[in-house]
Design brief:
About 25% of the residues lie in helices and about 25% in strands. By secondary structure, it is of the alpha+beta class.
Length: about 190
């Protein structure tokens, strides 16, 4: 009798151990808790205070204020031939000089964006956003210009209404995320 009870407990234990190993097919799939399409159509990254179209003077003033209040903050304004960069460290805000009145035209985030942590692999993002069509990009001079100093650069581009979201990778790991207005960023 003791042997039978011991055998039953052993079988029960083994069943419990293996049932714990059985998982949902999607359990290994990375999902963003953020509705990327919703935010992109609004011209936003949920982690960013500003959105596309925000008055550039407002962005500049706010970043100056943060920079002056904190020794750890980074701030710089870099004027190019056709565009201006307001660099806040983690977030970079661009606008075209001729379209300054249209506000921020391109936002680049060097950290977590749309719920994806830096270092997330490209295939994990395409899998998580498998409901949407994307285009692979490798043109560092145009769409990935903000990663010129990185090696092994590539990107994937999603179109949501009038806005484009680019997940940019260095050696297949997420390095930066950008959103821009098709209408207001033409450089």
């Amino acid at each position: 009798m003791k042997k039978i009870i011991s055998l039953v407990f052993c079988l029960l234990f083994i069943t419990l151990v293996f049932s714990g190993c059985k998982g949902d097919k999607d359990s290994g799939k990375i999902k963003s808790d953020v509705d990327v399409e919703y935010y992109a159509k609004l011209g936003k990254m949920p982690e960013c205070e500003f959105s596309l179209g925000t008055d550039v003077d407002k962005v500049d003033e706010k970043l100056k204020e943060i920079y002056n209040d904190s020794e750890e903050a980074y701030y710089d304004v870099i004027e190019g031939k056709n565009s201006v960069l307001i660099d806040g460290g983690t977030f970079m805000y661009y606008y075209e000089k001729e379209k300054k009145d249209k506000g921020v035209s391109l936002i680049v985030n060097n950290d977590k964006a749309y719920g994806f942590e830096g270092g997330t692999f490209d295939f994990e993002i395409t899998e998580a956003l498998s409901d949407y069509d994307y285009e692979e990009i490798t043109d560092i001079e145009d769409e990935l210009f903000f990663l010129k100093s990185f090696e092994g650069v590539s990107g994937i581009k999603y179109t949501f209404g009038d806005n484009i979201v680019i997940f940019a990778f260095s050696d297949s790991a997420l390095t930066a995320t950008a959103i821009y207005s098709v209408e207001n960023w033409t450089l």
